[in-house]
Write a structure and sequence with these properties.
Layout lengths: L5 H24 L12 H4 L1 H14 L7 E5 L7 E6 L10 E7 L19 E3 L2 E3 L3 H20 L6 E7 L9 H7 L1 H4 L2 E6 L3 E2 L6 E6 L1 E10 L5 E2 H4 L6 H12 L18 H13 L21 H9 L3 E8 L10 E2 L2 E10 L5 H13 L7 E4 L4 E3 L2 E2 L5 H15 L4 E5 L4 H9 L4 E4 L3 E2 L10 E3 H20 L1
Pfam families: M20_dimer (PF07687), Peptidase_M20 (PF01546)
Protein name: Acetylornithine deacetylase/Succinyl-diaminopimelate desuccinylase
Keywords: Hydrolase, Metal-binding, Protease
């Protein structure tokens, strides 16, 4: 591992996690720091600010020679925590390492298992349960602990800027403004380390080499000025739901789930296809067995490679919300005046999100049946995805060594079906930078749903691996 001493790195990481990280991270889990999209009164509630202060205070008490720590908050925007750690002697020429994570959380949702809850940190069987444990509260702790471990082992690192935001679960709407505002302080980034990812098991290092983009918009179809008795109006006036269903059929083949617009599709690059083939062969049930289906339920196909391509490189549509419907117990014989659905598209990593949004809107508003009125909600989201740059030789060598000495087995690279908007932004801003997108999340870590949990031993291994890669980067 070059000059950094492996045993010292491991001892430093384990000691910090056991004695310092887990107690403070548990305290962070207890803070209901909902992302702004799920808490319109976030500024008033103060939970995001409390999460930032909790982590700031912890980092301030760590051994990071020369580090500066600051909470930055632009007007009417969610706060970010910025930690600037000077390079070790002789490593300043290697540019800046930008380490990224987020402190905002998804909603709690119901259905947590007995004894567990979103804001109740519980350690059970080597797992830390609670909302934000793995997505992504641990990331700032892991990054700080990795830097400390480099120092403890006599290693080197370039200048490091740790940026923890509080709007990722809302699509990072404030982050471009912060990147612009902090451009001079961030500097010339040569390596990005993102710990908001993971893979199919907890036995090796997983790299995410692509992330899908996304579209998110509300679509409302209205034909009646007011609701009418269904026995009187049906057969004369079309149902707004039927019209919207017909319009969606222009976007998606409901029998197969295939999206039909060319603007939403791309050709899968050869290197990414090769990565997915390797993972599908090693982990043929990684996706088909990952989700709690009802008895007798099946995934879309039993072909592992097709599932991975569907999840990482093909566009999909999910209807994730609705308005204009009464609850079943309250539903009378009424032809409703309008139907609103929230459409969530996942886009291929290299698709142009703005062009895709334009194509979707055009398709939904052209030749609408019966002259119905189609409108869209305020502020639709259109976020580009991300495809990793070609790997530099130093990173390839470091990954192979880390995989052997820390995990004892080869690492794997794959695409992730979700989105981290910041990666696309950074890739455009720093086209020469290398990216290490990894993390402690597994397919069964329950991010966004009940019983979210962090694999504590694996998180420590990921932290150890990051420490070695920081040292390798500094040595070129």
């Amino acid at each position: 591992m070059g000059r950094v001493e492996q045993k010292s790195v491991r001892e430093s990481v384990v000691t910090s996690w056991t004695g310092d990280v887990i107690p403070s991270l548990s305290g962070l889990v207890a803070i209901p720091a909902l992302s702004p999209a799920f808490d319109a009164e976030w500024a008033k509630s103060g939970h995001l600010a409390a999460a930032v202060e909790h982590v700031r205070a912890w980092i301030a008490g760590r051994d990071l020679p020369g580090a500066t720590i600051e909470v930055v908050q632009l007007e009417d925007r969610t706060p970010v925590l910025l930690v600037d750690v000077p390079a070790t002697p002789g490593a300043a020429a290697e540019g800046t390492v930008l380490m990224y994570g987020h402190l905002d959380k998804q909603p709690p949702v119901g259905g947590w298992s007995e004894g567990l809850g979103p804001w109740t940190p519980v350690i059970r069987d080597g797992r830390l349960y609670g909302r934000g444990s793995v997505d992504d509260g641990y990331s700032g702790y892991a990054a700080t602990t990795a830097i400390e471990a480099v120092h403890a082992a006599g290693g080197e690192h370039a200048r490091i800027v740790l940026l923890l935001e509080t709007g990722e679960e809302s699509g990072s709407p404030d982050l471009p403004a912060y990147v612009e505002h902090l451009a001079d302080r961030i500097g010339d980034v040569s390596l990005v380390v993102c710990l908001d990812a993971g893979g199919s098991d907890y036995e090796r290092l997983w790299l995410v080499t692509s992330l899908r983009g996304m579209l998110h918009l509300d679509v409302k179809v209205q034909l009646l000025g007011s609701a009418q008795h269904s026995g009187v109006a049906s057969g004369v006036v079309a149902s707004s739901f039927r019209i919207l269903r017909h319009l969606i059929e222009r976007l998606e083949d409901s029998a197969t789930g295939e999206l039909l617009l060319d603007e939403l599709k791309v050709e899968v690059p050869a290197d990414r296809l090769a990565e997915l083939k390797a993972v599908s062969q090693d982990f043929p049930e990684a996706l088909s067995k990952a989700f709690p289906l009802v008895e007798g339920g099946r995934v879309i196909t039993e072909d592992a490679l097709e599932l991975m391509l569907n999840n990482a490189w093909r566009p999909t549509l999910s209807v994730i919300g609705a308005d204009g419907f009464p609850k079943p117990a309250d539903a009378g014989n009424v032809l409703r005046e309008s139907t609103t659905l929230t459409l969530s598209f996942r886009l291929p990593p290299t698709a142009d999100a703005e062009k895709a949004l334009e194509a979707v809107k055009r398709t939904l508003t052209t030749d609408v049946p019966y002259g119905a009125k189609v409108t869209f909600g305020d502020n639709p989201q259109a976020e580009d995805g991300w495809n990793a740059p070609t790997e530099s030789p130093w990173l390839t060598t470091a990954l192979r060594t880390v995989s052997d000495e820390v995990f004892g087995r080869p690492h794997r690279a794959t695409g992730m079906g979700g989105s981290i908007p910041f990666m696309g932004l950074l890739s455009r801003k720093f086209p020469e930078a290398q990216f290490l997108v990894t993390g402690a999340c597994g397919a069964d870590s329950n991010i966004h749903v009940p019983d979210e949990w962090l694999h504590l031993d694996y998180a420590q291994q990921v932290t150890e691996a990051v420490a070695h890669i920081l040292d390798a980067h500094a040595r070129g």
